[in-house]
Structure formats: structure tokens, C-alpha cells
Specification:
- The chain is α/β, with parallel strands linked by helices.
- The chain has one domain: Nucleotidyltransferase, domain 5 (2-Layer Sandwich), CATH 3.30.420.
- The protein has 10 helices and 5 strands, in the order αβββαααβαβααααα.
- It has a 5-stranded mixed sheet, with helices on both faces.
- Helix 6 packs parallel to helix 8.
- The two termini are about 25 Å apart.
Amino acid sequence: MPSLLTIPSMLLASTAWPFGIFSEDKPAHPLLAQSKDYFDRLDKDRPLKDYEFVVMDTELTGLNVKKDEIVSMGAVRIRAMRIDVESSFYFCASPTRDIPKISTLIHGITPSEAQKAPPLEDALLEMLDYCGNSIIVGHHISLDTGVLNRELKKHFGGVLHNLCIDTMHLARVYKEGHWTGSYEGYNMEFSYNLRNLSREYGLPLFAEHNALTDALQTAYLFLFLVHKLQEDSVWTLKDLCRAGCTRRWGL
């Protein structure tokens, strides 16, 4: 079992701290400014069960995260390291461009459905309110936060300051901990696909390529991995930050 302090810095998505990436040409929305202030002063000495997590996923008009637009967002909340089944978030948004047929085949959102949906600006505000001061979790979360930050900067003059944790990297840490000292060495064919990991670990399987059910799938994976990585230690948020964000958190 790997020690917490050996978890590499890639565990924490680089887009969680985008200072210097964007120029501040207008004041950030109050929700973004409040979040920055909160995370700047966050008490990191409490155990993980004392923090709230929001596990999120996005679906786009295509596969190009630099150009394509968000068509749906889904999220579930974790309190006391348990999924809060009564608190979830889902929103379809109307993009400025048509959804290609191949994208519809993947996530099932048709052009007519998207045209009837509210504008993305409304969805972003609801997302900001839902996330609040929670720690954000996702599978390959830098892709989601990269697109979100681009749109938040465009519409609200700022970016996310929430701490972000990537379950794909958590899975790497967990799996590589099992490989350490093994005669078999590294298994180069091991998949870090969300579905494959969930099946590998015997987790409940939900419909793919839907923002809400993918978020729920990721939430189950996150709790499983945290439980496994905590077996020999008790984590605090400071422990987690020491793994790879010393400059951001002043540790």
C-alpha cells in the first residue's frame, strides 16, 4: 500500500490553480472571488470526512477541448465520505454551434434538445452555486476544468479556484502501489478508463457518456480508492496537499 506522502503531484489537477494563465481584464464574479478567498484561508488539518466534495463530469459538442462547447454538466455531492443521493446537479446547455451527429451518438443529446436548452451562462451560474467551496473531483478532471475555466473567464471574468482531485491519477497511485516489489513489474496493459476501472474493482456500473451518471460512476470510484489508500493511515487535507501542491498551499 503506497504511503500518502509518496503520491505524485499529478494527483492534483494543474487547472485547479490557474493563476497567471489568464489576464484579469475585468472583475471576477463574486462567487469566484469568494471561492478564491475561501481556498486561500482553508484549514487543512481536518480529516477528509470533514470536507465536502463535488464529483463532476461534462459532455461537449465534440472531442476538441480547446474549441468545442459544453452541452451538459452533471455532478453529485459527497458529505462525510458518503454520496448524498438527495443532492445532485444536471444541466443541458444550448451551444452556439450545431452538435455533430457523431457526438449525438456518444452522449445522446440531439441538436433539437440542445436548441431548447437554456444558455450556457445560466448553467455555469448554477454550477458555481452548486460547487460552492467544495473540493472538485473528476476522472481526468483537467479536461473538464480546462473547458469550464475557458467559459467562466469568457462569461464571468474568472476561473475556478477549488482544489481538484483526479481519480485517474488516484487509480495510478493505487495500482502502482500493488506493482511495487512485484516480480511481474508494471502491467502496461492496465486500463485507466472509468468504465474499465469500475468493472475491475467490482463497482456498480451506470450508463456511460451521460454527465450525471458518469459523475456518479466517478464518485463510487473515488470513494473506493480513498478507502483503499487510507487502510494504513488517516488522511487530512494537509496530507493530500503535501503530496503535490506545496507552492500553492504554502506547505
